[in-house]
Automatic annotation (TrEMBL):
<feature type="domain" description="Ferrous iron transporter FeoA-like">
    <location>
        <begin position="24"/>
        <end position="96"/>
    </location>
</feature>
<dbReference type="InterPro" id="IPR007167">
    <property type="entry name" value="Fe-transptr_FeoA-like"/>
</dbReference>
<dbReference type="InterPro" id="IPR008988">
    <property type="entry name" value="Transcriptional_repressor_C"/>
</dbReference>
<dbReference type="GO" id="GO:0046914">
    <property type="term" value="F:transition metal ion binding"/>
</dbReference>
<dbReference type="InterPro" id="IPR052713">
    <property type="entry name" value="FeoA"/>
</dbReference>
<protein>
    <recommendedName>
        <fullName>Ferrous iron transporter FeoA-like domain-containing protein</fullName>
    </recommendedName>
</protein>
<dbReference type="Pfam" id="PF04023">
    <property type="entry name" value="FeoA"/>
</dbReference>
<keyword id="KW-0408">Iron</keyword>
<dbReference type="InterPro" id="IPR038157">
    <property type="entry name" value="FeoA_core_dom"/>
</dbReference>
Length: 96
């Protein structure tokens, strides 16, 4: 079990609770809206890097703005601003 999975299981009571919760990918979060991070759609090197940057389950994330052509997107998480490509943001699941 990966570190991300262990942390997600600790922050969310069970994996089933995450499955029952309505989720959406972070890239569809409207500008100016905030939502809690619930988990990730897969476990790989990119997901681990997002986790290291502060995108941890239970943390609130706010979409600040997007570039004129729609990519990249800027978010605030843990008091810092981070720019992600849309494909990276799509891996992060937030509350619907």
């Amino acid at each position: 079990m990966s570190l991300v999975d262990r942390f997600a299981r600790r922050r969310c009571s069970t994996a089933e609770a995450l499955a029952r919760t309505a989720t959406r990918p972070l890239d569809v979060l409207p500008t100016g809206e905030a939502a809690p991070i619930l988990g990730f759609d897969r476990d790989d090197v990119v997901t681990r890097r997002l986790f290291d940057l502060g995108f941890t389950p239970g943390e609130s994330v706010e979409r600040l703005r997007r570039a004129p052509l729609g990519d990249p997107l800027m978010f605030r998480v843990g008091g810092i601003e981070i720019v992600l490509r849309r494909a990276e943001a799509r891996r992060i699941l937030v509350a619907a």
